[in-house]
Amino acid sequence: MNTPADSRLMALTAHLMVIHRAYRAAADKALADYGLSQATAWPVITAGRLGDGVRQGVLAEAMGVEGPSLVRVLDQLVAAGLIERREDPLDRRAKTLHLTQAGHDLREQVETMLVHLRRRLFAGIAPDDLDACLRVFESLKSSLAHHQSEPGTAYEPVPPVVTPGSTAAVAGIASAAPDKQNENGGVPPRPSSEQQP
């Protein structure tokens, strides 16, 4: 049974997911005026913040994305004349990234736009509340990093609750499974959208 603390945590994680989607939509709407989305704008912004000559791998890590997916976006930005790839003088197998003048100009405009967007979205929230929110996020970020570095799960698994009725139901499903597989060429039917969790 959930405790009041569990209910608060569930509400918090639900809000985080909703806020993430809503902020992304708001930022994408604002970035559309520049012909960009967050996917294409963020590499330009982050590369500018990290400094000239950052390696692709370092940029991917800073953005929290996989290298191959970033490469595709960088290809688009190179084609658009916003970023240049150059050989790393210390390792010719590696590439460094450099904003072009157009990239620097665009980054400055986008950074200014995002400042105004954040000011509008966070208007009316007290500085103390923002500081408290940042402390919570920093703690959560550390906890998630620790969780990901641990082998296996970081929690005690909860055994399923089995009743006589549920046992019979499971047995009935199991016994019917071979027939369903035969009817569909060995592949169970895909559940409808209402049945999917």
CATH class: Mainly Alpha
Helix content: 55-70%
CATH architecture: Orthogonal Bundle
CATH topology: Arc Repressor Mutant, subunit A
On the 0 to 100 scale, the average pLDDT is 81
Keywords: DNA-binding, Transcription, Transcription regulation
Protein name: MarR family transcriptional regulator
GO biological process, one term: response to stress
Organism: Achromobacter aloeverae
Short synopsis of the structure:
Residues 172-197 are annotated as: Disordered. The protein is mostly helical and 197 residues long. The protein has one domain: Arc Repressor Mutant, subunit A.
What does the model show?
This protein has 197 residues and is mainly alpha-helical. It has a single domain, classed as Winged helix-like DNA-binding domain superfamily/Winged helix DNA-binding domain (Arc Repressor Mutant, subunit A), CATH 1.10.10.10. The chain is built from seven helices and three strands, in the order ααβααββααα. Strands 1-3-2 form a three-stranded antiparallel β-sheet. A hairpin with a 2-residue loop joins β2 and β3 (91-99). α1 crosses α5, α2 crosses α4 and α2 (38-50) crosses α5 (101-121). The longest helix has 28 residues, at 4-31. The chain starts with a helix and ends in a 14-residue tail after the last helix. 10% of the residues are buried. Residues 9-142 form the HTH marR-type domain. GO terms for molecular function: DNA binding; DNA-binding transcription factor activity. Residues 172-197 are annotated as: Disordered. Keywords: DNA-binding, Transcription, Transcription regulation. This is MarR family transcriptional regulator.
